[in-house]
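Recap quiz, item 2
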Amino acid sequence: MNIPHLLSIIVFTPVVGIIVLLFVDGKKHKFIRWFSAIITLIVLILSFFVFKQFNFSESGVQLVEKGMWIPQFNIKYFLGVDGLSLPLFFLTALLSFLACVGSFGIKERVKEYFILYLLLVTGMLGVFVALDMVIFYIFWEVVLVPMYFLIGIWGGPKREYAAIKFFLYTLFGSVVMLLGILALYFTSNPHTFDMMEIIAQRATFTRNFQIIVWLAMFIGFAIKVPIFPFHTWLPDAHVEAPTPISVLLAGILLKMGGYGFLRLSFPMLPEASKYFATFFAILGFINIVYGALVAMAQKDLKKLIAYSSVSHMGYVLLGFASMTQMGYIGGVLQMFNHGIITGALFLLVGVIYDRAHTRDIYAFGGLGKTMPVYFGIMTFSCFASLGLPGLAGFVSEFLCLIGAFSVFKVIVIASASGMIITAAYFLWTLQRMFMGSENERWKDLPDMSGRELFTLIPLMILMLLIGVYPKIIVQVMKPTLNYLVGLMY
Amino acid sequence: MVDIDFSLLLPELILIGGAFFIIALDLIFRRRVTWLLLPVSVLIVAFAMYVAIDLAGTVASTVMNTFVVDTFSIVMKVIIMLATIFILMLTDGYKPLGNAHQGEFVGLILLASSAMCFMVSAGDMVMLYVAIEFTSIISYILVGYLRRNPLSIEAGIKYFLFGAVSSAIMLFGMSLLYVLTATTNLGGIVEGIMHGAVNPKIVLVSVSLFMVGLAFKMGAVPMHLWVPDVYQGAPTPITAYISVASKTAGVAAFLRIAFWFAPMLDVASGEWVNILSFVSMASMVLGTVIGILQNNLKRLLAYSAISHIGFIIIGVIVGQEVGMIAVVYYMVAYLFMTMGAFAIVIMVADATGGYELNDYVMLSKRKPSLALLMTIFLISLAGIPPTVGFFAKFYVFAAAIKQGYIMLAIVGVLASVVGLFMYARVLKAMYLDKNDEIMKKPFGAIPPPSWAVVGLCLLGTLIFGVYPKPIVEIARYCCNLFGG
């Protein structure tokens, strides 16, 4: 059974939820929570149908929905998925649901929270299926507004600063990107915002033009990824945001940047991308090593994980810069893995923060005895993150490094040191928190609740599954990524 | 005997007649009909609007080519009249005005509207000058209407002084053009300059001086100094009126002259574009940067208005079809979002008695619907999708990029980011800030006509934000059926 307009239905289901919620009494917290969870669950279930209708052997976009929107400017309503967007689309649906369940702990202004949350979900889903650059840009921007409020209202002590910093930083990036998009539009002939058509016309763009547009888009995407030195908004936003929002920030929003590179910059501007490839790889190296070193110096657990994100996204850059099949697969897989692993880690930070009301790593000690289940899951996730073979993180980091090694030998060897630093700070963190003498203060901390386990177990299953059998996800993206690599030459 | 085609002048004549009718009604029946004045005036404007729309499609001029009717002028007149209707509805809930002299107040608004319509259609320097003076003199009175409020009087006097100086400068520019070409007709001036061997520097100087008067009406830098004080001091509905209607009229006249004069200004090569680019960039940057420092909502919206004029001028600089589409779309967007924002400012001021940012603290708790609506309008003003303000900026940037005005586009982009910060301060006050004291203050009732205005503005902001096609289509008609 094929559902027509499936992608539109998925993307706009949360909007229906928002409209219903607007008319619900704000005091019915329980109803609002469950209703939002059900909406995101519907999104998740429908995203499984996308897999069912998706042909894994095809490289082009599928489930296409295309219609004219603003004919005078040739702006189309054009949605579709391919092997690049489908894993990220699914990741969005999954994390949206889990983080929504994780949001049940929100006590203040519940109605507003879930309305903004659902708006955020629509924006994120839309970014990954939009194939017209104007629609893409609109979804990209729609993400910003709810995020500003979600951080600004429900965040930590420095929330207002973090929220406005995030808002201004990313808006700056996206408007510069808009200029790049407009330049592409007016250079293409006939003028179009259709990504596929622009890719088809890529040979007609001159080198200098490509370089200018590439840089404009680079600013937009680099801020989102974030690439050093544009990363300074990230620690603030991640640390101040409430737990479920940190999950989405790290899990989805960072992916929007990486996705943008592979969807727009690289295939549309191949010459400029090759011109900047080494530069890109060096930035990847800086991200890996700098992120890891700064993470090691952190006392705040959440900040540590925020900086580990910077480090992990470096592998994605390295993989993309290689422009090899292996590097591309590694990069996209790394984005997916980082989504589930870091999502889990942020949820875990939330678990301990809800109980102890501190995230200071040094404040803990001997937690392994009081919270054995928590200890187990934390260890599992940290190992996945540091790249233990058999778990998800290893596969993708390995692929990124192997893919890039054929092109940038020195940079890859230098970057590999990042893996050691990563292992060091995660192991050290586990040691400081869970080993050693038991701290009297935390003696009565309860172990994990059923709801918390419910949000974490699916992520753990995925980590293990991808770790031992990566083909399950690689087969989805392989034809498309092969095709995208082919576009570069 | 001058041949006059009255059918083309009908909308303006209806407005003038309506104004006198309202004033007469008030004079004769006094207090007994006060309640009737606003509904009747709304009907009059609506009727004039209907007549104006009925003229759509004609391209003609009358009264010896001094009055031009084309699709562009009709669209601009519709915007002005819609703004007038909104203002009249908002006046109903505006308490400081009371019931005193309502007939005069409403009558003056109708007269001002007709003057603005003349300004939009002016095809001759004399007509333009008279229309601008007509608009200005009524505006001075309206701005200073709250006679017991010193701020209002100050605003009125300031507006008057600035207006008088700028119209004198404009007159000087006009007289130079007359000396050069021996005609006051705008079309004739272009012909005279093109055919005579005139020093391009003199043309440039005289046109620049001429445009000063319009820059004053639009509130563009460097003629912006009156804007914040007048916006703050004027009765708020009049602030909104000046901000939307008067500005639309100014932009319309400005665009018409810039488009008509384009061939003769090409003689002065890039100089004219440089001057306009400076005005545009200075308006965008100054409006947003200084706007950040404002704590009074009316002043904040004043600086926001200055920055928006900068964006609109980009469209005028670019010219051609893309530029025209950008300007027309921007004016439509500007009508809905600015009017919506001002409507809420009026409501909040009526309910709490203040225009300061502090009065907006915790509005999300005290009146969630108002806070949500204000958020939508502010987001639209900041140019974030899916609102009409996004497409307004989008078309402006598109126009700039298309014709290679990269510098303008970049400054525009930076100004949008700074602008967001300006608007985010209001969002922060409404949603993020906490103040337990303010929760105890009562929140007054809101009159239904104000809700209607906000509702219409909301519809305009959202519908044209996701479905901009009709406006773009209309804007293209404006370009195809542009007189001259």
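The mean pLDDT of chain A is 90.
Residues 285 and 411 of chain A are 7 Å apart (CA to CA).
End of item.
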